[in-house]
Design brief:
561 residues; mainly alpha; Four Helix Bundle (Hemerythrin (Met), subunit A); Helix Hairpins; 2 domains; two-stranded antiparallel sheet; 1% strand; transmembrane
Length: 561
């Protein structure tokens, strides 16, 4: 049947292709005939325009003439292109072009004579040439060739139309024959397929439908009637499906109960884990608050150490300046001591001069005494000089004693100033040592501040992670609740099936209530107390799923987490 249909379709497609080609050729012929008509119309316009101009001398009549020439050329080129595969038509078009050129020559002469007649006012030459009808012969021949051109295209159109009618009739016959043969083969195939379907069903279709209806409604206890040694029919497949569905339904019932119990245990464990996570989050927040207070204290100590370092540096600078001043004082005292020594030397010279002056005065007095009366005045002067020399010597001695005393005091002052300079140098060194220690303390305080800030960041991250864990635990609790509900729905859905042991009604399962709490915010730092430490429990191996979930096992799992 398929082969016949394909053969009929192929033959019909072949005929349709030929019909399409013939129709396309007919359209082509109509296009050629239309172009031929355009050539004739434009040639008539040319003739009308030239005759109007010759008769009236009005150049306005040359408009149709010029437009006709232009359109005729376009139509002629189109006809040449459309008939390029027809030598006979190409030959006729060549003759038409020659005739058109000859008519154009006559028209040009007429235009020239008309212009001359307009110029001289005499139409005798024009009438003589026009009356000779030089263009009539060419125009008659043009019409004849154009008629032959159209007749040739009409003949082709008739032949192709006959071909189209023949192809249409042939295609219709093929379609009718193929359809009739296909219907006959379909009847035969339907009878064969019906017998094959009955054999494949393994029984009557109504019986198979009844069995399928019982299975679809959940009754898996319906008996399936089978023929002897029937293993490949639909009824045999239905019997196998019923047995396998019975096994699957019983397995789903058992799995649903296990899933429901496990979901309750998971929900209980998640609830306990959520509470412990909340406690841990609160402890972390309190620890973070304490670390913030410690950070504030260490930062304050660091600021104080930094200020102490600045003060120690200022004291060191002042001590250095004091040492420099003491050094300058020592230099000044040394200069004063040198000046005292020089003054003492000068006083010694003065004493020597006074002593020599005293001796000279004594000698002068002796000489004056020898001189008698003439030397008495000189003796008085010598006595006065001697008295002055003695007084100068006594004064010089007193000054020398004072200078000596001052020198000793300057020496003692210089020694004391030197000791003071050494003490100030020691103070400067001690202040520098204090400055170094304060710098180290400040650096250590800065490092402590940085370390505590890092600890604060770590605690903050731990707090965020704990909050995320709490959220995940809540999600897990919600998922466990949803899984428990879905397990109940699954058991309810499976409960519609009726197996050999009776209808599978789902047994009620105690479901653990899932309490989802929000982690409480910690109290302020001043009124906050650390939570009691949870005593450690030994880790236990995970037990196999059971119907009871013990608190100790939950605690052990929490410690592992």
């Amino acid at each position: 049947m398929v082969v016949v249909s394909l053969a009929g379709s192929a033959l019909s497609l072949f005929n349709f292709n030929k019909l399409e080609a013939a129709s396309a050729m007919n359209v082509h012929t109509y296009e050629v005939m239309g172009v031929a008509d355009d050539m004739l119309v434009n040639m008539i316009n040319i003739e009308t325009g030239i005759r109007g101009y010759v008769a009236s001398g009005n150049e306005a009549f040359l408009g149709p003439y010029l437009e006709g020439r232009k359109e005729f050329r376009k139509a002629f080129d189109e006809a040449k292109k459309l008939t390029s595969d027809n030598p006979a038509q190409q030959k006729r078009l060549t003759e038409i072009l020659e005739l058109t050129n000859k008519i154009e020559e006559v028209d040009q002469v007429l235009i020239k004579l008309r212009k001359e007649a307009n110029a001289i006012g005499s139409t005798q030459a024009l009438q003589a040439y026009f009356g000779a009808a030089h263009d009539k012969v060419h125009m008659d021949r043009f019409r004849a060739v154009e008629a032959e051109f159209n007749q040739a295209e009409e003949s082709l159109l008739k032949v192709r139309s006959e071909q189209v009618r023949a192809l249409s009739s042939s295609t219709l016959s093929v379609l009718i024959g193929a359809g009739a043969l296909t219907v006959l083969l379909a009847i035969i195939a339907g009878f064969a397929i019906t017998r094959s379907i009955v054999n494949a069903l393994g029984g009557e279709p109504a019986a198979a439908a009844q069995v399928a209806h019982h299975i679809a409604s959940g009754d898996l206890t319906v008996p399936v009637p089978l023929k002897n040694n029937d293993r490949d029919s639909l009824m045999a497949s239905l019997a196998t499906m019923r047995e396998q569905l019975t096994t699957i339904v019983r397995g789903i019932q058992s799995s649903g109960e296990s899933i429901s119990v496990a979901a309750g245990e998971i929900a209980t464990g998640n609830t306990d884990l959520s509470q412990r996570t909340e406690q841990q989050a609160a402890s972390l927040e309190e620890t973070a608050s304490s670390m913030e207070e410690l950070t504030s204290t260490v930062r304050q100590n660091s600021d104080n150490a930094r200020q102490g370092n600045v003060l120690a540096e200022n004291a060191s600078t002042l001590a250095v300046k004091g040492g420099e001043v003491v050094g300058r004082v020592i230099d000044t005292m040394n200069e004063i001591s040198d000046s005292s020594n020089k003054v003492s030397d000068i006083i010694t010279v003065i004493e020597g001069i006074a002593f020599q002056t005293n001796i000279l005065a004594l000698n002068a007095a002796v000489e004056a005494a020898r001189a008698g009366e003439q030397g008495r005045g000189f003796a008085v002067v010598a006595s006065e000089v001697r008295s002055l020399a003695q007084r100068s010597a006594a004064a010089a001695k007193d000054v020398k004693d004072l200078i000596s005393l001052s020198g000793e005091r300057v020496q003692r002052g210089t020694h004391l100033v030197s000791e003071a300079g050494q003490t100030i140098n020691e103070v400067v060194q001690a202040v520098r040592n204090v400055t170094d220690i304060m710098t180290e303390i400040s650096a250590a305080s800065s490092e402590q501040t940085t370390g505590i800030e890092q600890v604060n960041q770590a605690l903050s991250q731990m707090d965020q992670v704990t909050q995320q864990n709490a959220a995940l635990v809540e999600q897990a609790a919600a998922a466990a609740q949803a899984m428990s509900e879905q397990a109940t729905e699954l058991r309810s859905a499976v409960g519609i099936f009726k197996t050999a042991g009776g209808i599978a009604h789902p047994a009620p399962v105690a479901r653990a209530a899932v309490v989802v709490k929000t982690a409480p915010k910690p109290a302020p730092a001043a009124a906050r107390s650390l939570p009691a430490k949870v005593p450690p429990r030994a880790n236990k191996p995970a037990p196999a799923p059971s119907s009871s979930f013990k608190k100790e096992e939950a605690d052990g799992d929490w410690e592992t987490f």
